[in-house]
Design goal:
Layout: H1 15-19, H2 70-88, H3 95-110, H4 114-126, H5 138-147, H6 159-165, H7 169-172, H8 189-210, H9 216-227, H10 229-238, H11 241-244, H12 256-276, H13 281-299, H14 310-318, E1 324-335, E2 342-352, E3 355-365, H15 368-382, H16 385-422, H17 424-475
Antiparallel strand pairs: 1-2, 2-3
């Protein structure tokens, strides 16, 4: 018997009966165990929202509330954003979208979840922790402390250069087989060769431009301290370069070989910065290295330029006749720490004026002459009681000698004045003799001038006679 399609016809009168059929192979889901209260208890799938007015099927008048709580909404959004960022992280992804999604996820995750916070408090009250919290490992703490004051690390945007910087040759050679290594661009060795030159050039320019009054040997010593492996290795360790290095070797972390590898990776990174950005990479590396070296550059102290005439000034102050100043090497020569520059230690000693080997001052320098000048300058600067006494005695002696000399000159002048009147006739006779000698000389010059034509005539006559004789012989 067919039913009419009128409004009184119930199309869903058997719906409840259909839904209540037994499903032996269908697993049962406990929605509360998954923390999701809006799932359908029959199917385990979320129900559609009805804004609080959805009526239960099968004629049930009880309403089913499907709204999420605030805490559940927050947790769900964080999970969805995690999935979204993971799915959208591609080479052609929109960077702005990824940035904002990541930032939103970070802000949501930072908010405290009231439910989890309450559970944490209950756990601490009921089951308090008994074991002490694990402290930060010493090596991690050391790296953090070393890196916290360092400038940001400039990135290397070229992937193949970046990979080469952190790749050791042992990572490429398979099982140590010879002949398997052919590509020279796959490890950091060639980059290290170039980076070493860049680092030395940048260090030289930094010292040259910032210390214009320092002599070249001192600048060379400072440059060695900036570019030595120990300094570069500290930077490499602080930035964590060793943790990123790919290799198959077993190194002793305290060996020289490992320390050289650490420094070489840093040099390779500098070359990678320059090569990855041909337009401004060198300026970037220059700025970064100068900022890294700033504390060391500030610690360099210019040596005081000693007076090169200090030895002469000290001698003029205390030396006269048998008084002696002797410069002696007070202790053996050494090499300055961190460089190969020599350092000498000299002292100046006085003998005379009632003193024997009295030490007046000391100094040091890269050679004995500079150290002696420094010792003399130190003696003048100290101006000890011995120096003052010696200078006073010399000044008194010099003043006495000047008085004696002035008195002797005055007596000689007076004596000469007295003798000048008696010697006047003799002086007149001497003048007359000089006049006669001058007249005689003039007469001789005149006679010689008169004889010149005669001598010339005789010479010409003699030459003509010799010529005629030669021509006659040739004719015969």
């Amino acid at each position: 018997m067919s039913q009419k399609r009128g409004g009184s016809f119930n199309h869903y009168e058997n719906r409840d009966r259909f839904d209540k059929r037994s499903r032996p192979n269908q697993p049962s889901y406990n929605s509360t165990s998954y923390g999701n209260s809006n799932r359908d208890p029959r199917h385990g799938y979320p129900q559609q929202r009805s804004h609080g007015h959805q009526q239960a099927r099968g004629g049930n008048s009880a309403a089913f509330q499907a709204e999420l709580s605030k805490a559940e909404m927050q947790t769900g959004l964080v999970a969805l954003l995690d999935r979204f960022v993971a799915d959208e992280t591609r080479s052609d992804a929109d960077r702005d979208i990824l940035h904002h999604a990541s930032e939103l996820r970070r802000l949501l995750a930072r908010k405290e979840n009231p439910a989890s916070a309450t559970s944490q408090r209950e756990l601490d009250e009921k089951r308090p922790g008994t074991a002490p919290k694990v402290a930060v490992p010493p090596y991690v703490h050391r790296k953090v402390q070393e890196a916290k004051d360092l400038p940001p690390l400039p990135p290397i945007d070229e992937p193949h250069i970046h990979d080469a910087v952190f790749t050791h040759r042992s990572y490429i050679i398979k099982n140590g087989e010879k002949g398997t290594y052919t590509d020279l661009e796959l490890d950091y060795e060639r980059l290290e060769f170039l980076g070493d030159a860049y680092i030395e050039l940048i260090a030289s320019h930094a010292l040259y431009s910032r210390f214009p009054h320092v002599d070249v040997p001192q600048l060379c010593s400072w440059r060695e301290r900036l570019v030595e492996n120990s300094m570069l290795g500290k930077f490499s360790e602080a930035y964590g370069f060793t943790d990123r290095l790919r290799h198959h070797n077993q190194w002793d972390r305290n060996s020289k070989a490992w320390k050289k590898v650490v420094a070489d990776v840093f040099e390779a990174y500098v070359a990678g910065i320059v090569l990855a950005d041909p337009r401004s990479g060198y300026e970037t590396a220059d700025k970064w290295l100068t900022e890294l070296w700033a504390p060391q550059l500030l610690s360099f102290k210019e040596k005081i330029i000693e007076d090169p005439h200090a030895k002469n000034k000290l001698a003029a102050l205390v030396v006269v006749n048998d008084i002696k100043l002797e410069y002696r090497e007070e202790r053996p020569m050494i090499y300055e720490k961190g460089s190969n520059l020599q350092k000498y230690f000299m002292g100046v000693y006085l003998t005379g004026w009632g003193y024997q080997d009295e030490r007046l001052g000391s100094g040091e320098g890269q050679n004995k002459a500079n150290a002696s000048s420094a010792a003399a300058a130190d003696a003048i600067k100290k101006n000890s009681s011995v120096t003052q006494d010696a200078a006073r005695q010399k000044a008194e002696l010099v003043a006495k000698r000047r008085e004696e000399k002035a008195q002797a000159e005055a007596e000689a002048a007076a004596k000469a004045a007295e003798e000048g009147t008696t010697e006047e006739p003799g002086a007149q006779a001497t003048g007359e003799k000089m006049d006669k000698s001058k007249d005689k000389k003039r007469e001789g010059e005149t006679a010689e001038a008169d004889e010149m034509p005669k001598k010339k005539h005789k010479k010409d006559k003699k030459e003509k006679k010799q010529k005629d004789s030669t021509e006659s012989e040739s004719s015969i």
